[in-house]
Q: What sequence folds into this?
């Protein structure tokens, strides 16, 4: 049974696969990169590796096909993904509504993503940057998930209690990041296969999470 969000004030969001539906495009780019280099892979296998992390996917396929030359694969991936932001995946249904609901009830939204500063291009294109009090990316010299480093820095900077915060994401490393920092954890499955790792809250989509957020603030 899911834990309550009552008393939670700080909502720390992952980006890809949590607020924005970017995985279909990311998988196509990865597949295109492999094909441009004369290799191929199953979409479901790429997805499974990306559920660990995209870094894990790059490492796996560079070792499998290219003698560990990850730079070559990453460059091919960047070429395959060279398209306008609007074609790279937009927000999931209810993304703006859940963020607005947090703010309208006196809560705060934060983000910690493994993207670099390109995340701001997405947020600006969809007019969503203003929902966040602060955003940390790997360009901010923080230790990647599952380290609690980014959450610790956000809590220290903004003065929120980690016991009154929740880390929300779609992968095990997101959940482990929150657990290691001492926050509640919320796993969004998006109806897709996932591991058996534990989370304080597990929901299928943002609509379901929206209901829990409203109950938490109004309960």
A:
């Amino acid at each position: 049974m899911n834990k309550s969000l009552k008393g939670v004030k700080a909502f720390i969001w992952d980006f890809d696969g949590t607020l924005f539906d970017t995985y279909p495009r990311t998988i196509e780019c990865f597949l295109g990169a492999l094909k441009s280099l004369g290799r191929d892979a199953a979409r479901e296998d790429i997805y499974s590796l990306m559920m660990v992390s995209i870094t894990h996917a790059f490492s796996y396929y560079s070792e499998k096909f290219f003698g560990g030359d990850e730079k070559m694969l990453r460059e091919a991936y960047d070429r395959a993904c060279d398209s306008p932001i609007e074609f790279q995946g937009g927000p999931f249904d209810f993304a703006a509504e859940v963020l607005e609901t947090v703010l309208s009830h006196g809560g705060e939204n934060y983000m910690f993503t493994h993207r670099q500063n390109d995340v701001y291009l997405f947020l600006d294109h969809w007019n969503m940057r203003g929902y966040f009090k602060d955003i940390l990316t790997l360009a901010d010299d923080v230790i990647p998930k599952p380290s609690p480093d980014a959450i610790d820095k956000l809590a220290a900077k903004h003065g929120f209690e980690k016991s009154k915060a929740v880390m929300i994401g779609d992968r095990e490393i997101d959940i482990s990041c929150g657990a290691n920092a001492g926050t509640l954890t919320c796993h969004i499955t998006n109806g897709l296969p996932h591991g058996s790792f534990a989370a304080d809250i597990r929901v299928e989509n943002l609509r379901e999470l929206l209901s829990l957020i409203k109950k938490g603030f109004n309960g």
